[in-house]
Amino acid sequence: SGGIGHLYQVTTNPAEARGTGLGMAAKAGAVIADAEFVQFHPTAIDVGLDPAPLATEALRGDGAILINKAGHRFMTNLHPDAELAPRDIVARGVFAEVAAGRGAFLDATKAVGSHFPSQFPTVYASCIAAGIDPVTQPIPVIPAVHYHMGGVAVDVDGRTSLDGLWAAGEVTSSGVHGANRLASNSLLEAVVFASRIADSIKGILPESRLFEWPQSAGENDDLVTLEDSPDLRRLRQLMSLHAGVLRDADGLKTLISELAALERGRPRVRFGNICAAAKLIAVGAYLRTESRGAQMRSDYPEQDAVQQHRTYLTLKDAEAVVA
Question: Which of 18, 60, 73, 87 is catalytic?
Answer without folding.
Answer: 87
